[in-house]
Amino acid sequence: MSRENVLPLLFCCQIGTLGLLRQASSYSLWSAAIEGYPTATLWLARLCSVLTLAALVVLVGRFRDRLFGRGAAAGFGAMLLAGSALMLYGAANVAAYAVSQVLVGVGHAWILACWAARLAAMDAARRNRTIAVAALAAVLLFALVGAAPAAARAPLFLAIAVGSVAPLVGAPWDKVAFPSPVEHAVDRASWLRYGGETLRLLPTELVVLMASYSLLFRVLVFFEFPAADPALLTWCEALLRGGGMALLIAYLARRKFVPSVRQIFMPLLFLTVAGLAILPASGRLLATLSVAMVESSWTFFYVIMWIALFEIGRSARGDELMLFLGGWTIMNAILLAAAPVAWLLETQVSQGALSMTALVLVLAYMFSVALLLLRRRSATSALHVDGSREDASSGDGAADWQEERTQFYQRLAEEKRLTRREAEVFAWLAQGYSLPAIEEQLVLSHSTVKGHARSIYRKFGVAGKQELIAMIDGERGRSKP
Predict the structure, then answer these.
(1) Which residues form the HTH luxR-type domain (predicted)?
(2) Do residues 56 and 11 both lie within one domain?
(3) pTM of the model
């Protein structure tokens, strides 16, 4: 196996540290003392991560090729490892623990961004397979740490943290082609505006889903889950997480295309709702299974967000790295705020009111997923195929080009006697969109879009999309005066 194939697989260590950091303090030699530290110190790592990610979002539009690379990975990787070691072995007092959380928060956020930069440079299909395979391997790492003796968990955590840093330090960064969609942004105002425009591509319903699901999970933590067998719970969670990731890998391999956002969120919706539906059930097996489903949904939520944020950037022809970092920052900021809000709800309202709050959050969560499933985009995209954004202030040239292109596509569709729906699919194909992206734009099934595409190729006498685009380019060249 080549070095380029091994590197993406080791992304599992990054996903592993992402999950294990939430419980790493329990592996510390000073775990009993840490439990008595002020609550604020427990959130320093997440707060520092959010602030670091926000700073990266501001800077990445202009300086991305300077922010990521071997030097950055080595420096911030050392910060992550030093903070982890201090937390595990030296957190004898609250000051040392606070320093460890700052180091971990900043270092981990930057290493995560370095991995995101590597993923953003991949094609969509390879990137999604990489995330799915790495997630399955991370589930195995979770199971390994959970099954290990208590004394071995701290060394295992450090080994996984090293695994998330070392591949980036040794990676051939000179071969990574960073997209440069903001070469024109030479002043501060323009690249800040660019970042704001990119983040506006995030669907509002996705942000609502993040908020409702995060707060729902935090509220559920304060409920007393049904009595469950710890050993059985561990096995159930391992099987659910591992089986789910294996199914995702098989799905990507079988369908041979990049799934749309609405397809991605279906498994998460099913797992969460099914787990909540049987949560009140009695009986050892059902009670354990329900808790396992609810807790496993959190793992799927993280992994699906990795895929979905990149996919939104791809389907919108936007800056995938910027959109991912911005979306991940928003999600972590929501998670940071969700815990104190959930704590206030738990301490200030009755159990019945808390149950009603959880029901409202479930409905908001399901409603946001439904909006994502039914999401329809405008027939005229604000982004060109090459990733450059149309600027409303650019004058009449952009509007003239849009009108000219629309009329050109309409003329070709009429000449080839395309149906109305075929003409719509043709306009998207001509701009380079994939079938899954067209499915999402027009809210059609895969088989329907695939059938229209076959009919279009037959009427144009071509074998596929690339030949179709080449033919259209030839027609456009001949039609110019």
Answers:
(1) 411-476
(2) yes
(3) 0.71
